Amino acid sequence: MKGKLLEKVARINTKVWVGMRTIFVFYAEKGLSRLPMDVESVEEAISNIPEGVYTAFPIYPGDYALRFGKHLKRLRRSAEALDFEIRIRESWLREVLKKAVSMIGLDGCRTLLIITPSNPAGTYIIMEKFAPPDSHILKRGVHVGLARSYISRPQVKNTEKIQKRRKLFRRFSDVYEVLLYNDEGQILEGASSSFCGVIGQTLRTAEESILKGISRGVLLDAAEGILSVVKEPVHTDNLNTLREALLTSSSRGVVPIVEINGIKVGEGEPGPVVSNLRAAYEGRVKEELEEL
Q1: How many angstroms separate the CA atoms of 39 and 21, rounded?
Q2: How far is residue 106's CA from residue 60's CA, in Å, rounded to a whole number?
Q3: Which of 59, 118, 146, 267 is the 20 to 30 Å CA partner of 100?
Q4: Which fold has domain 2-129?
Q5: Regions of the chain where pLDDT drops below 70
């Protein structure tokens, strides 16, 4: 499939149409080529790429990224868990990403890297315009669902999970995210995010059986001085004890949760703790941004 796609590269129109969601798909190995995929979503693009391990993150204006080295280390760990070794140099990948950003002409983009067992020396790159959550989402908070976890190896971030996540969301309506819990009723993480709850003066988050998100690490570092962090999961039976709650991911930052599976969180509106955490998180991001 890759060969057929590469044959059509010369015929691609790289114009970014204003007002439309444009998805850019590249393949990089010895060089960088844009693939002629006419898709309307990142998920659709992924369905046309062989299964592999992936990571997602924003590239900020000026070709800046947050903890990029950690994203690559997590990719390598996921690959090792699937019995293959990524053969890509970090310095090379940084240069390839800068070239891709230059080709599409976007001032900031959300980026996914996918590396497959069939070719661990190359990477697929999916890019779209980076759009953080709308201001009304941060002001009003979001409603999320609850579902039993379907993830057998949470520490492995592979594209199979994206397809399973799409199927999961078909069971829900009008939710921003779905939180996953285990057989003991412990909330582990979101289907595409990390989860934290505020109980008393502590920030609670699961530590085991989760994918330890990059943004989660930034948030926990930023929480120092605001409240104590307890690495224990919130139980589904204790949702009514939550003062506040949030989800976090590299592309969304910190988003307040105001309702979980029909149960109101605290006063049912974003509270001061999550607001302070979001401000501290954003400050930490600005401090740690590095050039690719």
Answers
A1: 10
A2: 10
A3: 118
A4: D-amino Acid Aminotransferase; Chain A, domain 1 (3.30.470)
A5: 1-21
Q: Residue 243 in contact with residue 199, Cβ under 8 Å? A: yes
Report domain extents, the chain. Answer: 2-129, 135-290
CATH classification (class only), 135-290 = alpha beta
**Per-residue pLDDT tens over the stretch 97-124:** 999 999 999 889 999 999 999 999 999 9
